[in-house]
Design goal:
alpha/beta; TIM Barrel
Length: about 120
């Protein structure tokens, strides 16, 4: 995490959403304290549901966003050359136990992206 860059951008009065590599509640706290309006959890929200639940309980759903990439119907986690992880048997829908209020899917296609709320 480069919190110095985050602090400089946030000091301009521009709302910043910050994500990438946030794998602990300490990292989430640090990003929000550095000026992020919201943090974005990706892989960690999918592989560590306890982190997502803790972040939502501590900071609320208005400051914690989940972003999951879906490619060819599979959840793609951990950026890089690894194959996508199957979402079969796992729910990506909001859970009342985690504090999620809503979710949106965004599916990559050859021609662009499409999104839908559920």
């Amino acid at each position: 995490m480069n919190l110095d860059h985050l602090r400089r951008i946030a000091s301009l009065g521009v709302p910043v959403q910050y994500g990438g590599g946030l794998r602990s509640i300490g990292a989430v706290d640090d990003a929000l304290l550095a000026g992020a309006a919201r943090v974005i959890l990706g892989t960690a929200a999918f592989t560590d549901p306890a982190l997502l639940e803790q972040a939502l309980q501590k900071h609320g759903p208005e400051r914690v966003v989940v972003s999951v990439d879906v490619r060819r119907g599979e959840v793609a986690i951990e950026a890089g050359p690894r194959p996508p992880m199957s979402a079969s048997g796992r729910s990506l829908r909001p859970s009342s136990t985690t504090g999620c209020r809503s979710s949106r899917t965004r599916t990559s296609t050859a021609t662009g992206c499409s999104g839908r709320e559920f």
